[in-house]
Every structure is written in structure tokens, then in C-alpha cells.
Amino acid sequence: MFQVYNETGAAGLSVLEAVTDWAISDVLCDVGALSLTLPLDTVGAEHLLVDADRQVRVLMAGAPDMWFVADDDAWAGVSDHPGSELRQVACRGLAAVFDEWFLDGAVTFENRNPGDVVATVFAAGQSAGFFQGVTLLGGGTADASGNPWPTSFNVDYDADKSLLAIMKQLTDARLMEWRMVGRQLRIYAPNGLLSSLPGVLQPGGDVLSAPVTRSRRSVATHVQVAGDEATPPTIRSQALPGRRQRMTLLQQPTDSAVDPAVAGDLYLAAHAAPDVQLSHELADSADWVPWVTYRPGDQLPTVAAGDGVELWRVQQVAARGGVDGVQISVELGSLLKVAEERLADQVAVLSPGVRVLG
């Protein structure tokens, strides 16, 4: 069910009764998307297809509500004939509102954890009249699961930083994770969203198709570890079949205390095998229901990669509905990304003191 709300999500306006096609994309630690196709004269369209900001609430059995913003009067059609023309409406996930307010001035956080940073900026945005009707779970004391934050750091932010940009930077630095649940932003320590599901996805049954992409471009036999200009680079190598490939690893100032040879060996270990990206198109099943039994951040056990049962983390869940029924696809991410995240964690453990984000 698709419901239309006013610009803040506080007042319901109508229910869309004749949506011909829809598509939802939910991405781990990012803004999702919703696409709707509906007749111009369907009930509820008069509240959505207007020159005003709107929010759309999506209701699915057993799943938390999903919220999207429909703004900029963004829709496409052939003509304005009310009896035959369809409109395609593009919406952004509710987390998009975190990109609509920016810091009023430069801000410095000293020896603070990600919960401190996000909670402080979130409160400032709401005090300025933004993010209305959205709540935050997690803060400086603990994350959304009640777990303590493992890392504190120093960071300076310029006045042009939005809350969304800050959260993405903290996520890219492997300092936090986050997701929207209904109208609530939940922030977690790294891998705080991680849960492994029972059972195994079987090709030909649960899995209708499982395209695999492999690339050896990331494989490295030699790495040159470079720091400042006054220090000669360190070269490390590993014996692998195939031709030699050298990469360059630039040590960050915060990692300068890590032995370049150790950093090089960790890098080579993370780039010793081809990158594999795996997707699944899933059958409509009572055992595997998107946003009910699994969601972005969970681990799905599958044999589709051909190496026995392996756990793959869900990076994106997408669903599409229309005259042909409902199709579900799951992006299970990249082995290279997992290896590089592990590399970043290992280097951070070896680095004494605080971490500084630029």
C-alpha cells in the first residue's frame, strides 16, 4: 500500500489506489529510492502530482514502514489527458532530508565517538527546523543496539557539511553504520547491523538466477608503500600465478606509526584473489521475505558462488512490482570490499592514539 503524506510526514492525505508499477531500492548506509507509475486520474494522484513537497509511506505486511520524499514536482508523462496518461514519480529515501541542512559554521570534535558527532549535528538540524518528524536511536553513550562505541577521534568539519555527508564519511572510514527504520535513524558501531540468517539459499529453488562478476584487476603481486616525501618507499611482494602487477599504497598521517612492511603485507593479503561480486534474483517465498526476514546489512548463506556454503553480506535489496508480479533482487556486494574493510580495521588496530578524519 502506498500512502501520500504532507511535506513533513505528519498528516496523511490519501491512499494511491491504482499504482501500475513500482520499484524500491534499499541500500546499506545510503539513501534508498522509490519509483511509482500511476494513472493521472487515479484516486490519490491529486495529492501526489502537485507542485508541493510530499512524502510517501510504503506499507508491507510484516515489515517496518518505509518512507520516501517526493519533491521538486518530479514526474514524467506524455500528455495531460486525464483518462489515459501514466505518470512516473521518482522519490528518494527519507534519509535524503539529512542532506538538506548544512552546518552553520566550522565545527571541531575532540576525542569524540561517532554517536557524539551524529547526535550533535542531528540535534542542531532539528533545532533549525529540519528533519521534522524523524527521531534518532543511538548517541554518544551507546549505539542503537546499546553497544559502546569502540573508537574515538578528532575531526574538523567545514560549514558546507550536511549530516548525510558526515554519516557517509564516518561509514567510509569504518567508524559506524546506519539504517532508517520507519521514521527513525538508527546508528550502529561497525558491523552492528551484522546478523547471519539460518538456512541456505539454493539455486533453482530460492534463487532464480545468481549472476557472478569476477575481475583480476585488483590482484597485486607487488605493493609500493609510500609515506612522506623524505622517506624512501617500501616494496613488498607475494608469489602468485600470472603476470606481475604492482600497486601503490599511500600511508595516511594517522597510520604513520605502522611499519610499512606490515602495512604492505596486509595490503597484499587483501589483494591476493580476484574480486567477486554476486547478485541474487530470489523467488517469492515465505521463508525469504525482503525487509522481514532479511535487510541490508544482514548476511545471507548461499551456495551460488560455487565454493560451498558462504555468508555474503547484503548491500542492497530491490523489489519491483507490476503486471508480471513481484521480482526481488539482492546485491550481495564484493569480496574485494570486504577484504579492504578488514585491511582498514587491521591498520587501525595497529595505529596508536586517535584517528583524524579530513
Q: What can you see in these coordinates?
A:
By secondary structure, the protein is of the alpha+beta class. Among the domains are: 2-94; 100-188, Phage tail protein beta-alpha-beta fold (3-Layer(bab) Sandwich). The chain has five helices and 24 strands. The chain has helices spanning 45-48, 114-127, 163-172, 260-270, 335-350; strands at residues 2-5, 12-16, 21-27, 33-39, 54-58, 66-70, 75-76, 86-93, 107-112, 135-137, 153-157, 177-181, 184-188, 207-209, 212-215, 222-226, 234-237, 246-250, 275-282, 299-302, 310-313, 316-322, 325-334, 355-357. Strands 1, 2, 3, 4, 5, 6, 7, 8, 14, 15, 19, 22 and 23 form a 13-stranded antiparallel sheet that branches. A three-stranded mixed sheet has the order 9-11-24, covered by helices on one side. Strands 10-13-12 form a three-stranded mixed sheet, covered by helices on one side. β5 (54-58) and β6 form a beta hairpin. α2 (114-127) packs antiparallel against α3 (163-172). The longest helix has 16 residues, at 335-350. The protein is globular, with a radius of gyration of 23 Å. The chain starts with a strand and ends with a strand.
